[in-house]
Amino acid sequence: MARHDDVRARLLAALPQLSPAASRVAVIVRDDPSGAAQLTVSELAERAETSTSAVVRLAKSLGYEGYPQLRLALAATGTEQRTPVFATDITADEALAKVLHKLTVFETEGMLATERLADPETMAAVVAALVAARRVELIGVGASGLVAMDMAQKLNRIGLWCGVATSEDDALVHASLLQPGDVLVAFSYSGQTAAVAEAVRRAAHEGATTVAVTGGSGSKLARAAEHTVLVAGREDGFRSAAMASRMSQLLVVDTLYIGVLQRTPSAPKALRRTYDAVAQRRRNE
């Protein structure tokens, strides 16, 4: 888990996987952490119109031993003087100025929660694997594919040759050709895309190092990967999961990129050469 015990960040990571009953409990907890901390497990279950076992399961899914530990974390959260992580959703008739403000809050909260969720030791291990890699393969489907392409573009610019697969078939094909010494990084916010998880399993079977960047800590993808970097996001109304997670995933990409850049002696020269090549073409136009 992250280096800070932040129930908000844990909720953000768990939300995509919650059952309807657990989601009702989570809504009460997110909207009023200090108030929820005053409730017994029976009172919280009654308010959420569910069972006490559903409350306990939610606590455990967030990484706590049980409801008493979650209750203590909620009490501590309630004493903090800061802006709530869960902002009001965007409505159909919202003015664009208000939309801009809410999106700024959404993106900021997601990145701050990601900073708390992403384990530094895991990030360092991923950077070390990328620096030493014979070959790097990046996979993601849909919006996660755009994140994979962004990382490929960054790493290629500093001389680390990367392949990228943005369809399910390509992900499976590319993963099956990896070898020991290679690294596969898979992006999926839910972590439940079957082909992406299967690609990670195939790459691991071939001896490659596998990395999952996902919001699903207990997802198929997280279970299949050797290293899991958690990201935060929230799907709500007009704001889809892909939209919610994109900035958090890109934050992880940028962090990994800087880590590789710092630890690769040839990278600054490669970056300068690629910059000059593009700049020269523009000067000649």
Automatic annotation (TrEMBL):
Keyword Transcription regulation: yes
Keywords recorded for this protein, A-Z: DNA-binding, Transcription, Transcription regulation
Residue ranges of every copy of the SIS domain listed in the record: 126-266
Domain of life: Bacteria
Keyword Transcription regulation found: yes
SUPFAM superfamilies: Homeodomain-like, SIS domain
Recorded coiled-coil stretches: none
HTH rpiR-type domain ranges (all copies): 5-81
Protein name per Swiss-Prot or TrEMBL: MurR/RpiR family transcriptional regulator
Lineage of source species: Bacteria, Bacillati, Actinomycetota, Actinomycetes, Mycobacteriales
